[in-house]
Amino acid sequence: MRRLVLTAVTSAVALLIATPADASAARPGASGVGDAYFPLAGNGGYDVRNYDLNIRYTPATKAFSGKASIDARALQSLSRFNLDLRGFEVRSVTVDGKAATFTRDGQELTVTPRRDVRRGEKFTVVVTYDGTTGQPTDNTGALYGWVSYDDGSFVANEPEGASTWYPVNDHQTDKATYDFTITVPDGKTAVANGELVSRRSERGWTTFTWRARDPMASYLSTASIGDYDLRFSRGPRNLPIIDAVDRDLPPEADDGLARTGEMISYFSDLFGKYPFSSYGAIIDDDEDAGYALETQTRPIYSGAPGESTVAHELAHQWYGNSVSPALWRDIWLNEGFATYAEWLWEEHTGGATAASQFDTLYARPDTASIWRNVVADPGATNLFVSSVYDKGAMTLQALREKIGDRSFFALLKAWYALNRDSVASTADFIALAERISRQELSPFFQTWLYTAGKPATW
Ligand code: ARG
Ligand code: ZN
């Protein structure tokens, strides 16, 4: 009641002071955040604060049912708004406990609340949905999202696959915290981001509750289900480490993880304090998939990872996860950095130097794929190509030689410190590099990041 009165007063005042007459008029939220590679990824008009995902899944039948409670805040007055969701039957949608109407069109779930949501207002959307899961593919035909296997699910969402398993504002510009409540048949293990809060068994079902309390981009969320053993240990500065390793793998499957603690210390010294509240790995037994993803706090590996892959996914926790790309064309800020971190780790542990990694790649012929794409704008179907990873890492080595170790390592630290828990663009990186080095670097970056082909001089 009181709220209604306040609303009336607030609106009257707003009407009096608003300059354009309809500045506070409710209008639909946009169907995308404006990322040219994926125009429908994410949505406009609100900011998600927390996802509370309640999932029940039976691997044998691939039957999935979910209830997502999404706490958000309106960034404009909303007559309706969108979520991203692919597949499933939506059973009901409520906004602040009241039934809302909804329509579906492709990946867009459009929700019309019973009354407008006012700008600045916090609201909660609850969506119940169910269906049978499969093997979704991205725009290149690669598996992504909730990928179903007979023994469980392998979950990897990059770039916009979170919408294959829950209704979401599916873009890294809207980070949120997460609660996961995942119910699976007894004997199966469900692993998500963050820390395990509880594990309870009742009448043949086990419910795992996980909480990820650091802001997270949706493409980094996971809820992998399988025949995992959970192992709890501690890393540097007592950081909780939770690994999940498939029981069907041979004992040496986790050999690549052996130096994780050392890696955390090394990268923390170089980049800044480890960003999140825990770490660990998920190692599945789908060796053929050859896939790894830096899911936040808990990277997933489709099979036993090598040490350099482990270093790569760990480095992403700083570069990619805490500092995320503003747009998907900035993907080299993830992959070039993580590849360069592999080189640093290798040099640190007595292997090839970063300079020699650069030389080896530079010797590749002019026709090699590494020179094919534009590093800082590779195209929506080329997010994970060699130009982005390898030429991206070469760009950092060339920059290091140009501005010197002192500026370069100060830059790596500042890039993280200034942009943590947020997003940043290539232009931001160039500006910071110029500021720290006090050099004019646009010709250098034009050559390395914005021109395809093998750089001749820089
Ligand atoms: N970001 C992942 C990595 O650690 C790669 C993801 C590859 N995704 C794909 N659809 N091929 O490098
Ligand atoms: Zn990567």
UniProtKB/TrEMBL annotation:
Keyword Cytoplasm: no
Keyword Protease in record: yes
GO BP annotation list: proteolysis
Family annotation (Pfam families): Peptidase_M1, Peptidase_M1_N
Catalytic activity: Release of an N-terminal amino acid, Xaa-|-Yaa- from a peptide, amide or arylamide. Xaa is preferably Ala, but may be most amino acids including Pro (slow action). When a terminal hydrophobic residue is followed by a prolyl residue, the two may be released as an intact Xaa-Pro dipeptide
GO MF, one example: zinc ion binding
Cofactor section: Zn(2+)
Protein name, per record: Aminopeptidase N
Species annotation: Virgisporangium ochraceum
Species classification: Bacteria, Bacillati, Actinomycetota, Actinomycetes, Micromonosporales
